[in-house]
Structure formats: C-alpha cells, structure tokens
C-alpha cells in the first residue's frame, strides 16, 4: 500500500486538491433528473474543463506513455505477450489456459426465458470445449479480428443470468475484441465453430467467423506503419459498401487504430465510391477458407478520428469521457457498448495507454500508482485519499470503477458506466437510481448498501500520471 501522505504531496497539474469527504447527502427537490446533487450544467465536459488550473498541461508525454505501457506489459500478469507464446503449443499448457478461465458453474443459472438452465445444457456446454481433443502438440496459429467480436466464457452464444428475469448481465459474456486486434489461436471447440484465443488483455472463446488466420509477421505487423487513424469518438463506422460487405458499416470503437493507405490513387474508386471525402484505410477480412486478407475500406473524414493518439491532458481526458455520456451499460462489452472497466480503458486507449481489461486486474495493477484500502483503513485515511483525487484518477469499489472529473458544491464528482447506483431519497430511504449507463454522480453520497457508502467500500485508487512532475 502506498503511503497516503505521498498522494497529498503530489504536484497538482490539474488544479487544487478536492475537499475532505462530507457526510452523505440526501436527494433534494432541486437536484437535476432525480440524481443526488446533480445540476444540468454538470453534464457538459466544458463545465469541468473550465475548473482545471492547467487544462492543456501534458500529464504524460509520448515517451512517458511508451514507458508506462512497457511497465504495464512487464509487470501486470493480466497482460499477455503474444509474441512470447511458443510456436508449438503443448496439451497441458493449453488445457490450463482454458480451464483457468472458468470451470463448471456452481450456482443455478437462468435462461432468457426465466427458466433454470438444465444440467444437460451445462454438461454439453462444458463438453463443447473439446478438452479431450487438445493435441499433444500443435502449431500456434495467428489471426486478426475482422469484426467486433464477443469473448465468451464457453463456446456458445447462450445467454445465462444469475436470476430469473434479470437479463442484462450475461454471466458467460467476458469481453469483446475489436477489428485489427491480434490473437493467437490455442484450441477449437468440438463443433469447429469457435476458437479459444489469447489476446493481449484476455483469453476466452470467440466465434471463428470473426477471425482471419494469417502468418505471424502479417498479424503483428498490422497497423505498425507511420500512417494511421485513431478512433477518438465513442465509435466510428466505415461507409456502407454493398460491393464489399465484409468492411461495410463496420463499428470501430474509441482507441482502435487502423492503417491508412496514404498513397492510394485519388482516381481509383473503392467499392463503388470515389475516395476524396474519406480516409482510405486497410482492414482485415476473413476469406471463405478462414484465411486472413487485408483490403481497402473507406472511413469518412467526418468521423471523429485523429492522425495520432491524443495528447494526454486534463482537457482531453474529460472530453473523451463525456463522449460516452448516456451510452447504455453493456456488461462485458455486450450491446455493442461497454461496461465500467471497458469505459475507462477505452478512454485511456485513445491516448495510447494500455490498461487491464477487468476491474479486478485494473484496481491492483502493479504498473500503476496505486493506493490500496482494506478493513484496517480508517475513515480519515479514506477521506484524505478522496481529498487528493485529481481528474482522471480511477476509484474502485468491489466490481466497479469510476473516473474522477472534479469537485463542485463540496462533493467529488465521477463519470462512470454503471448498471446501478443508489443514494438517500427525499424521504431519507435508499433509492435505487437504475442509472444503467454512462452517468455523472457525486462520490460521497453514493450508497453501496443501506449503511455503507462508496467511500466506505473503496478498495483502490489508481493514478495514471508522472507524480514527479512539478
């Protein structure tokens, strides 16, 4: 655990530190949209940017970001070095990776119809992993993701839930991969329709139709040239091209980097369209035989993209975060959206910064500037930590992460992608806000239970900045 006084002594690049934690505040009649403490002007990034002392000061420069990413890849066990995976895969190691993701469910799960998932369905799902079919040794195969693809606990699209009727959080949904992501294929399902893959930040099952298999040089070389675009909007889409449906209307999420074919002849049309109003980009596609190909596609110049990763400044952090405001919460990147940890990692990805995928890994990452809390942490320590929060700092409670945006009216404000949220109502009783999306809320009044606040439940604070800067 890092010493709390160090946080309070850190140079304040983005403005003065925040006030000490106040007592939980109840909902008031004047609060906007029935969210405790909220005012309508708090819903604009510009409000919080105007409160920064140095909104355009660099938090980390490009060299410091490269060093931070190298540290993350070296120290954090949740980040996988795909180039280090052996060219020949051994049975015991592959089985260990698959079984390490998940074992047999230990509780009753429910289907979309509200009925318990039968033991037979569970058994067949486990069998579909084809563990007995893992070869004693097999060559590693490399691929690129060709379409936004769900990462699943098991090789099935069956959605399962912890309770009947609660169909938002699919417990077999792990995460998602994005066009251009590199993977190493470790195994295939019994029906031949799924791959178990390793990506840089996750290992899970993905439908084969989303992966094109190619040689390692092509896979690892994709997007490594000097000309590229980085998606800086919440999403961007390629143009509709019926001539090449594989790259038509393709969703590219914040932080996705795609190579630009800068020397494409201006008079040469692409998929039935002249290209002067577009960036001519190169995207991976899957051929009918499963092999990888790289083809030109059109990305409108009107799309929110940049020629490079954005400078990491307070202004840009807040601007990027608010581009997701109001987006529906999507557990494990379901609904073509994202969840709390996906939200913060995609904000930072638009600056070229690598973060672990899940809150459980993010919150304890040894590569970040961490403050840890446990049962022995005092109220004073928690208050001191909240008082030292800066915009961009990440605050963790069990199963959830929030990003600090500033202070107003004596409260510390967060933007976060949440499927819940509760606080004291006008009658003094706990109110479930059912925010269910990217929302702006204060930290201190938010309740984790009838008696405990989010501040009481804080497990970690992670800071992504050079704390030695003055």
Automatic annotation (TrEMBL):
Q: Extract the signal peptide range.
A: 1-22
Keyword Hydrolase recorded: yes
Give an example GO molecular function: cysteine-type peptidase activity
NlpC/P60 domain: which residues? 311-465
What keywords were assigned to this record?
Hydrolase, Protease, Signal, Thiol protease
InterPro entries, A to Z: NLP_P60_dom (IPR000064), P60_peptidase_YkfC (IPR027017), Papain-like_cys_pep_sf (IPR038765), SH3b1_dom (IPR039439)
What is an annotated GO biological process for this record, any one? proteolysis
Q: Record's superkingdom?
A: Bacteria
Asked if the record carries the keyword Lipoprotein, the reply is no
The family line of this record is:
Belongs to the peptidase C40 family.
Q: What is this protein called?
A: NlpC-P60 family protein
Q: What is the lineage of its organism?
A: Bacteria, Pseudomonadati, Pseudomonadota, Gammaproteobacteria, Lysobacterales
């Amino acid at each position: 655990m890092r010493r709390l006084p160090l946080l309070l002594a850190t140079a304040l690049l983005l403005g003065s530190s925040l006030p000490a934690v106040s007592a939980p505040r109840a909902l008031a009649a004047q609060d906007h949209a029935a969210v405790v403490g909220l005012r309508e002007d708090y819903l604009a990034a510009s409000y919080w940017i105007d409160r920064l002392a140095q909104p355009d000061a660099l938090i980390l420069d490009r060299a410091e970001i490269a060093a931070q990413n190298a540290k993350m890849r070296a120290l954090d066990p949740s980040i996988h070095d795909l180039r280090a995976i052996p060219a020949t895969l051994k049975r015991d190691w592959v089985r260990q990776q698959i079984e390490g993701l998940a074992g047999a469910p230990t509780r009753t799960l429910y289907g979309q119809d509200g009925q318990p998932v039968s033991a037979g369905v569970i058994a067949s799902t486990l069998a579909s992993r084809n563990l007995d079919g893992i070869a004693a040794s097999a060559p590693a195969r490399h691929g690129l993701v060709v379409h936004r693809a769900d990462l699943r606990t098991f090789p099935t699209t069956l959605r399962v839930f912890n309770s009947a009727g609660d169909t938002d959080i699919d417990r077999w949904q792990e995460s998602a991969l994005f066009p251009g992501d590199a993977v190493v294929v470790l195994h295939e399902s019994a029906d031949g329709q799924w791959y178990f893959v390793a990506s840089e930040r996750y290992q899970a099952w993905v439908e084969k139709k989303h992966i094109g298999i190619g040689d390692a040089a092509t896979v690892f070389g994709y997007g490594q040239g000097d000309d590229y675009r980085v998606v800086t909007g919440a999403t961007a889409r390629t143009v509709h091209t019926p001539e090449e449906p594989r790259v038509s209307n393709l969703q590219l999420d914040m932080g996705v980097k795609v190579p630009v074919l800068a020397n494409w002849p201006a008079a040469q049309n692409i998929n039935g369209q002249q290209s002067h109003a577009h960036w001519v980009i190169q995207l991976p596609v899957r051929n009918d035989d499963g092999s990888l190909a790289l083809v030109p596609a059109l990305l409108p110049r009107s799309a929110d993209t940049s020629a490079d990763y954005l400078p990491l400044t307070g202004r840009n952090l807040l601007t990027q975060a608010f581009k997701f405001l109001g987006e529906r919460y999507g557990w494990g990147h379901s609904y073509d959206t994202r969840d709390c940890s996906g939200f913060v990692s995609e904000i930072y990805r638009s600056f070229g910064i690598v973060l672990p995928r899940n809150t459980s890994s993010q919150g304890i990452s040894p590569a970040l500037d961490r403050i840890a809390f446990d049962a022995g942490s005092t109220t004073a320590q928690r208050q001191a930590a909240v008082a030292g929060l800066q915009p961009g700092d990440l605050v963790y409670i069990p199963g959830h992460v929030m990003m600090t945006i500033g202070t107003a009216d004596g409260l510390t404000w967060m933007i976060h992608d949440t499927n819940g949220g509760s606080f004291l109502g006008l009658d003094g009783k706990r109110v479930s806000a059912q925010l269910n999306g990217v929302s702006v809320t204060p930290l201190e009044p938010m309740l984790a239970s009838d008696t405990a606040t989010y501040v009481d439940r804080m497990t970690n604070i992670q800071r992504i900045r050079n704390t030695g800067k003055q």
